[in-house]
Each structure stands twice: as structure tokens, then as C-alpha cells.
């Protein structure tokens, strides 16, 4: 019999067991594959399958506290496999399945880097990539003790007799302060920081965020987000499972190939909530053909939540204007702000409220002053990321560590009941960002009338002649220049010895091959910057798919700058 434990505070397994008892026949996870009939896990069938995989893990020798990394493609059995790891007190960690274009050696090198930094004990994967991973098990000083192929295991195993007694003893000893999961924060492969989150942090977050979203049993989440990223893992997996509402899980790569698939799934499943990074709004607005939307209705949606990047008013407008005739309501466009270190996020705009937007003086903003003005000349549209959710506090500080007043820009510090326990095996990195209970986010922003506005990353700011230029502004502007691949732009600072300051450089992907066409595009990009009083000094044009992305799916500024400027890697045009 599947049992929960309450001796040491509620853990996630307790919540999942409780939901399976409350809603045995209610849909929990709808596994969606384009062109196929969706597979529908109920809460009870999901838990029974998880118990079967847990038997397999125990027989393989997995113990409480072991880190089990999953490297599995979009598969209906992934979900119970993940739950089974947690059910025996081990720590699940989801890693991205290698892209077919990625050389096996690079994938192995990245996995080795994560195993050393995170201390991975076991790899749960598919036989298709076993030859790539197996050398890591035998390699000297490797932390990886073995590779399992759970998709090959029997599917109806049960704990019985002595095994049942032993597993119940193990579960009774799991504390709500024990790690519930290991989440690798955004970064390029092998450089991601391993974030440890406790059962209590995750369950407290679900409670507080559910209240902010006004979640109800009638809600249904729709997601194409990768589960190795905190947005997909928490918002579209842990949140619905713990709250007891269904979620539709789509394949990330299928959505990238067919963006209209999201609208099809929302329409068929009557979804109510979805989370999107800002760049997805542009893709959905500009890359979906009208023919693909025949018969689509989106009026069931109460929240499209823009998160992971500073919210762009232009992107929201593009999306709303494209889909309002299909039932998208202006007040369904929502926003939030957060990161893996606070479980998922710290702010959320109230449901049903039209997003707050401010026009601020761009010049004054570069000096850290928020001056709200009328008109659009030399202004920046700042869109709110909402209010602080319950269980969180935010303060904003200047470079000297002093708290700033409302109307001034600074770094956001967060205190939360759902704060991470630290970066696993990285005490020095933990100490650098976690001080006296406050997490130093590295994000710049300001507060206005109780709403928070995020404007950029502290480490990425370009300082030109004493003024701060936010690369997000430059990237958003260049993305809309005809000939540039939307969203495939990186802006950074290059030091100029002649003027003794940084100058703005841009790397932009384009499909234009002819040299004359590229010369014209460079000029168009520079002129586009001038219209917004942004002086772009250098423009590097690169072919499609040249830019290296972080685990969050966004081009990495630091990595691409090093690749282009410091390593002086050649650009090859086909």
C-alpha cells in the first residue's frame, strides 16, 4: 500500500499521496504528442506507476540523499520516474537531453562538469545515448556510480513484505527540510549553479503562489516549457501536482517547430494558465500562419504569464493584437519576476488586472533615476512584473548597499520562506549571494506604488560615458530590424581605449548571405539604435543558429562575447 509520512512535517510525497486519495480519477498530467492521442495520467495511476519505479530504484541500490539525474526525452513515463526518485528520499535533478546537433564529446564534457559540481550519483537515461555516458562511470574521480534505463523496467512492481516495511521506514525518516530537488540555474552547459530546494520551500511556495494566482480546481495549465528549467519544473509540474489540478505537457522541440501547437492544445484542452518567456510572445505573434488557427478558441485562458525576462510592452501588444480575435483578453496578459533560488518567483501581477506600464526618461533611467514622462521620445516603456507574493520580501539597494527610496533604480534583494538552501558543493558562491537571509538577485529594477519593474541584469549592464545601458533594450530594438532573426540578438560592452569607456556591440543572427545585403543590415541596425538615442558602435552579423544559448533557451551574452571577441572564432557563411 502506498503510504505517506507526517512524522517530520509534510513532504511532497505526502501531498501527492493525499491528492491521489482525494482525486483518484482526476486527470493529473496529459502527455501531449503532436498527431497522437494524448496519454492521460490520473492522480492514482501516476502514483501507482511511481511506486513501481521506486521498487526498481531500491533494487538498484539508490539510497536516501542520492542525486539521481534524469536525461530522458519527452516520454509519458518520465513523470512517474521523477516522482519515484523523490518518494524514496533521493534527490531528482533534470538535465537536458542532448540536441542531435551537439557533438557527443561536448555533451559528455558538460555532463562531467555538472557531475563534479553537483555530485551526481546516478544517471537515469535512455539506451540511445548509453555509449556517450558510460565512459563517465569508469572515469577516475567520477562521482557517477551507475547508469539506469528505467524505460526498460517492468511497469507493475510493488513493495511487498519486508521491502514494504523498509520503504515505509525510509519515508518516515524523510524531513520536510531535506532536499526535494536539485535545480540547475540558467547557464551554459557545465557552468550552471546547482540549486538545492527543500520540500518545505517547494510546498510553501505552492501555497503562496496558488493564492497569488487565485488557483481553483477548475484551472488547467498548458506548457511546452522544458522541465530542466525552473519555469517549467515548478510552474508546470510541481505546482499543479501539489495543488491537485491538471497540466498538459507538450514537447519543447515540437513547439519550437510548430508554435501554433500551443494554441491548438489550449483550444482543445480548455486551458486556463500558461507561462512564456518574452521571446515566445514574438514567435507566437509573427511565426504562426493564419491557416493554422482555423477553429481555434482561446477564450478559456485567464492568464498568459510573461516571465524569465524583463517584460516587453511591444511583445505583449504584438501578441494581443494577433490573438484578440481568437478570444485573448487584454487583462489575461500577466507577468512575474523570479529565479530558481527563490523556488520560482517573488512577484506576480494580480489576476484580471491590466498590466501596469510606465513611460520613463531613458537618460535619467541610465543614471538610476525613475522620471515618469508623457510621450514616447527618448523614453523606455517599463512594464510591471507585479506585486510581492505572500512569504516574500523585497528591498532595493544601491552600489554601497544602502536601501534606495521609491523612484530609484537598484539591485533587488529577496527574502523568502521558499529560499534555496544554497548551491550544492559551492559554499563560496552561496556566501556571495546569500547574506543575512537575503538573496542578492543581481537584477536591477525599481518599485512604483507597490509594483516592481525589472530592467536588466547587473552583471550585463554596459557603461557608456558614465551612463548605464541595459542590453535588453538594445536586443529588443535590434530584434525588430528587418533581416534580423527575432530574439537571436546579443548586446554587450567592448572597451574602447580611445575614449576610455565601453562601447555598445551587437551580435545578430541573419539569413542574409550576400555581402551587400549584410552591409545594409549593419547600417539599418545602427540607424535603429540612433532613433532611440542608442549609439551602437560595432555590429557583428552571424548565420542562423550561431549564437550559444543558456539552459533557459536565451542567447548567453558572456559566452557569445568570449566566443566572438576574445577567442576570435571565425564566422562561416554557407
How would you characterize this protein structure?
By secondary structure, the chain is of the alpha/beta class. A 5-stranded mixed sheet has the order 11-12-13-14-17. Strands 18, 19, 21, 22 and 23 form a 5-stranded antiparallel sheet that branches. Helix 1 crosses helix 2. The radius of gyration is 24 Å and the shape is globular. The protein starts with 11 loop residues before the first helix and ends in an 8-residue tail after the last helix. The model has no long low-confidence stretch (mean pLDDT 90).
Q: Any idea how many domains?
A: 4
Q: Give the strand tally.
A: 28
Terminal Cα span: 61 Å
Gross morphology is globular
* Proportion of helical residues: 25-40%
CATH class of the largest domain: Alpha Beta
Largest sheet: 5 strands, mixed
Instruction: Give the percentage of residues in beta strands.
Output: 15-25%
Number of helices: 17
- The radius of gyration over CA amounts to 24 Å
Structural class: alpha/beta
Low-confidence runs (pLDDT<50, min 5 residues)? none
Q: Order of strands side by side in the largest beta sheet? A: 11-12-13-14-17
Mean pLDDT: 90
Give me the CATH architecture of the largest domain, please. Answer: 3-Layer(aba) Sandwich
Within the CATH hierarchy, at the fold level, what is the topology of the largest domain? Answer: Rossmann fold
Briefly summarize what is shown.
The chain is an alpha/beta fold and 574 residues long. It has four domains: 12-23 and 43-213, 3-Layer(aba) Sandwich (Rossmann fold); 258-344, Rossmann fold, CATH 3.40.50.980; 356-460, Luciferase, domain 3 (Roll); 462-566, ANL, C-terminal domain (GMP Synthetase, Chain A, domain 3), CATH 3.30.300. Helices cover 33% and strands 24% of the residues.
Amino acid at each position: 500500500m502506498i503510504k505517506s509520512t507526517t512524522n517530520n512535517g509534510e513532504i511532497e510525497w505526502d501531498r501527492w499521496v493525499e491528492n491521489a486519495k482525494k482525486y483518484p480519477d482526476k486527470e493529473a498530467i496529459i502527455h501531449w504528442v503532436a498527431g497522437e492521442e494524448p496519454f492521460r495520467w490520473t492522480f492514482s495511476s501516476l502514483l501507482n506507476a511511481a511506486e513501481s519505479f521506486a521498487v526498481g530504484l531500491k533494487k538498484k541500490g539508490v539510497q536516501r540523499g542520492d542525486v539521481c539525474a534524469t536525461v530522458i526525452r519527452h516520454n509519458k513515463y518520465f513523470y512517474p520516474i521523477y516522482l519515484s526518485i523523490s518518494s524514496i528520499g533521493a534527490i531528482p535533478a533534470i538535465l537536458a537531453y542532448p540536441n542531435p546537433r551537439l557533438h557527443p564529446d561536448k555533451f559528455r564534457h558538460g555532463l562531467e562538469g555538472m557531475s563534479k559540481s553537483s555530485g551526481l550519483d546516478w544517471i537515469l537515461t535512455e539506451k540511445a545515448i548509453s555509449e556517450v555516458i558510460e565512459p563517465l562511470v569508469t572515469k577516475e574521480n567520477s562521482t557517477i556510480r551507475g547508469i539506469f534505463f528505467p524505460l526498460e523496467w517492468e511497469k507493475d512492481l510493488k513493495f511487498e513484505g519486508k521491502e514494504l516495511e523498509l520503504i515505509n521506514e525510509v519515508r518516515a525518516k524523510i524531513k520536510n527540510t531535506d532536499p526535494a530537488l536539485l535545480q540547475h540555474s540558467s547557464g551554459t552547459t557545465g557552468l550552471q549553479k546547482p540549486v538545492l530546494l527543500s520540500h518545505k520551500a517547494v510546498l510553501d511556495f505552492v501555497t503562496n503562489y496558488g493564492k497569488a494566482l487565485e488557483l481553483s480546481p477548475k484551472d488547467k495549465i498548458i506548457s511546452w516549457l522544458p522541465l530542466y528549467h525552473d519555469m517549467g519544473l515548478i510552474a508546470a509540474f510541481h505546482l499543479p501536482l501539489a495543488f491537485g489540478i491538471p497540466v498538459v505537457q507538450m514537447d519543447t522541440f515540437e513547439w519550437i517547430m510548430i508554435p501554433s501547437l500551443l494554441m491548438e492544445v489550449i483550444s482543445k484542452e480548455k486551458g486556463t494558465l500558461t507561462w512564456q518567456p518574452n521571446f515566445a510572445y514574438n514567435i507566437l505573434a509573427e511565426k504562426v500562419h493564419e491557416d493554422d488557427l482555423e477553429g481555434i478558441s482561446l477564450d478559456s485562458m485567464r492568464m498568459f504569464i510573461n516571465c524569465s525576462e524583463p517584460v516587453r510592452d511591444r511583445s505583449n501588444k504584438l501578441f494581443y493584437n494577433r490573438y484578440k480575435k481568437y478570444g485573448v483578453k487584454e487583462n489575461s496578459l500577466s507577468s512575474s519576476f523570479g529565479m530558481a533560488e527563490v523556488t520560482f518567483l517573488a512577484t506576480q501581477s494580480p489576476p484580471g488586472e491590466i498590466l501596469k506600464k510606465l513611460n520613463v526618461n531613458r537618460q535619467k533611467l541610465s543614471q538610476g533615476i525613475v522620471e515618469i514622462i508623457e510621450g514616447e521620445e527618448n523614453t523606455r516603456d517599463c512594464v510591471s512584473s507585479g506585486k510581492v507574493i505572500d512569504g516574500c520580501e523585497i528591498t532595493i539597494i544601491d552600489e554601497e548597499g544602502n536601501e534606495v527610496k521609491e523612484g530609484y533604480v537598484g539591485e533587488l534583494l529577496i527574502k523568502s520562506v521558499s529560499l534555496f538552501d544554497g548551491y550544492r558543493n559551492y559554499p563560496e558562491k552561496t556566501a556571495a549571494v546569500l547574506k543575512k537571509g537575503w538573496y542578492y538577485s543581481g537584477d536591477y529594477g525599481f518599485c512604483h506604488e507597490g509594483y516592481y519593474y525589472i530592467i536588466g541584469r547587473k552583471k550585463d549592464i554596459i557603461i557608456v560615458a558614465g551612463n548605464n545601458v541595459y542590453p535588453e533594450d538594445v536586443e529588443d530594438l535590434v530584434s525588430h530590424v528587418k533581416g534580423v532573426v527575432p530574439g537571436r540578438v546579443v548586446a554587450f560592452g567592448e572597451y574602447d581605449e580611445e575614449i576610455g569607456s565601453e562601447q555598445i556591440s551587437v551580435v545578430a543572427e541573419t539569413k542574409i548571405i550576400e555581402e551587400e545585403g549584410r552591409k545594409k543590415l549593419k547600417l539599418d541596425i545602427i540607424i535603429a539604435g540612433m532613433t532611440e538615442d542608442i549609439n551602437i558602435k560595432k555590429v557583428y552579423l552571424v548565420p542562423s543558429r550561431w549564437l550559444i544559448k543558456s539552459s533557459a533557451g536565451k542567447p548567453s551574452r558572456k559566452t557569445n562575447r568570449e566566443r566572438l571577441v576574445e577567442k576570435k572564432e571565425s564566422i562561416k557563411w554557407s
